[in-house]
Specification:
233 residues, mainly alpha, two-stranded antiparallel sheet
């Protein structure tokens, strides 16, 4: 049972990270590729079930962040409060409400085309169902597995994208911000480690720029593209 519980935890964490990168970050925020509507629905449900919904507020502030990265109007730059932002990013959305000051102009400029769906009205229901499933399999130990899953996915995605990728690592491109690549091999965070590369060209599906760099998320997208489930732009 211990081996099964460990495998279950690792697989669900990886799926959560994959969906956060491929669906939430690369598709919903940056629209790096086109996707079959049925596949989009599956990805959306999976992200909702394993992590949270992609709120319009999060999309708007992240797009604004790219335009004004690490400036005084950047909605989430760690340069103006590293530890407070990290604390916020480490807490899963299930346990807090994501609030940030955005104007009506911001919503119109960065999120005018975003329309919420049915499941967006119930942002905590998905992970609650995931908790119920996990407890039904592992008993009360499932609560521990569920908590490890939520905090691990948050650490490997939101904290990596928002905080670590602006403070630690190396640069390939000197931009007007503090973005960095955490490491050249993007496996654990499926490519989100290459944040400086991503800020250099946010519409590029492959976050790897140099031959010694590797973006696992892009390899998954290549498979989906070969299966005609998505189309690169």
């Amino acid at each position: 049972m211990l081996i099964f519980a460990t495998m279950y935890t690792l697989v669900t964490i990886h799926l959560g990270v994959v969906l956060a990168s491929l669906y939430m970050h690369r598709y919903m925020i940056h629209r790096q590729y086109n996707v079959n509507p049925y596949v989009e629905s599956i990805m959306k449900f999976g992200y909702w079930f394993l992590f949270e919904t992609v709120s319009k507020e999060f999309i708007v502030q992240h797009r604004k962040h790219h335009e004004f990265s690490d400036s005084t109007v950047d909605p989430h730059s760690p340069r103006f409060g590293y530890w407070s932002l990290l604390k916020c990013c480490l807490i899963p959305g299930f346990f807090r409400s994501y609030k940030i000051e955005l104007s009506e102009f911001d919503y119109n400029r960065y999120g005018g085309s975003i329309k919420p769906s049915f499941i967006d009205r119930y942002p905590r229901l998905g992970v609650s169902l995931f908790l119920a499933l996990t407890v039904s399999i592992f008993g009360w130990y499932g609560i521990i597995i569920w908590l490890v899953h939520l905090f691990a996915v948050n650490f490997l995605t939101i904290a990596t994208i928002t905080v670590f990728g602006h403070a630690h690592g190396y640069k390939n491109v000197n931009l007007n911000d503090y973005t960095t690549n955490l490491m050249p091999i993007g496996i654990l965070c499926v490519g989100e480690e290459l944040h400086n590369n991503h800020h250099y060209d946010s519409k590029r599906c492959n976050f790897a720029l140099k031959q010694n760099e590797f973006d696992l998320g892009f390899q998954y997208l290549r498979v989906l593209n070969k299966l005609n489930l998505i189309q690169f732009k």
